[in-house]
Amino acid sequence: LDLKIVVPSKQLYDDVKKSPILGEKEVFIIPNGIDTKKFKSMDNDYAKEKLKIPNKFTILFIAQVAFENYRKGTHILQKIFEQFKDNNKIQFLVAGLNSEKWKLFSYKNLIPLKYNKNISWKNLVYNSADLLIVPSVNENFPNVILESMACGTPVMSFKTGGIDNIIDKKNGILVENFDIKKFIDSIQILLKKKKLLISLKKNCRKTIEKNFSIQNEVKSYIEIYNKVLNENNN
Q1: 175-220 pLDDT, tens digit each
Q2: What is the pLDDT of residues 218-232, one digit of tens each?
Q3: What pLDDT score does 160 carry?
Q4: I need a labelling partner for 163 at 20 to 30 A (CA). Which of 85, 135, 207, 208 fits?
């Protein structure tokens, strides 16, 4: 059997090629795709109103498990919360299982939301935010970034896994070397530079439509299937 391997990112492609077992196999890169009809922009004020949260600058962290999750960087998240705990001009939304445990720290500008897989709910959450932060120490190709950007909400993330295949300087902010100070400083800059944030918002939706739609993903798989069929018929 001539095995074909599909991976979502350049990093995983390189990892497979280094494998003594799989390295000789043909490997294709097909990024994850998002349904841009389901994940889409809506009015930020309206989304906040529907979620019944205050109308102020909102920074979102969303993960299936949103507390004591080292891989997703919740230990770094706490340092970010500490830095901004006295800033009443912004608020943090934390969505995911165990998010209510953040209440133990009594951060006045933190709102926990229970995790919900419903796409309409997720759409509201992404659109209520002005920025999604991804402080993960280890990632692959997170759909949460694609979903957020499809809603027109830019992302700030550490450079890990295949994230640099999605985010660039025009559509978001990538922080290298897990530099927590740079991450916090970058949030401070975005709070002041509204024009930059507006530009990132426009470009992040365009990026998903152009490169990471579900139509693109399906088309790429069909091309591979046709290639395999042609090889087997010859």
Answers
A1: 999 999 999 999 999 999 999 999 999 999 999 999 999 999 999 9
A2: 999 999 999 888 888
A3: 94
A4: 85
Q: What DSSP character marks residue 172?
A: E
Are 64 and 71 in contact by the 8 Å Cβ rule? The answer is no
Give the helix ranges, DSSP H, for the chain.
10-18, 44-51, 74-84, 119-128, 143-150, 180-192, 194-211, 214-233
pLDDT (tens digit, 9 = 90+) per residue, 84-124?
999 999 999 999 999 999 999 999 999 999 888 899 999 99
At residue 1, does pLDDT exceed 70? Answer: no
- Residue 117 tokens read as 């897989």
Q: Per this entry, what is the length of the chain?
A: 234
Cβ burial, residue 186 (10 Å; 0-12/13-18/19+): middle
CA distance 137 to 159: 9
Closest by Cα among 15, 12, 16 to 24: 16
> Virtual CA dihedral for 175, 140, 136, 156, nearest 10 degrees?
40
Distance CA 164, CA 72 (A): 17
Q: Rounded to 5, what percent of the chain is helix, strand, coil?
A: 45, 20, 35
173 pairs with which residues across the strands? 156
pTM score:
0.94
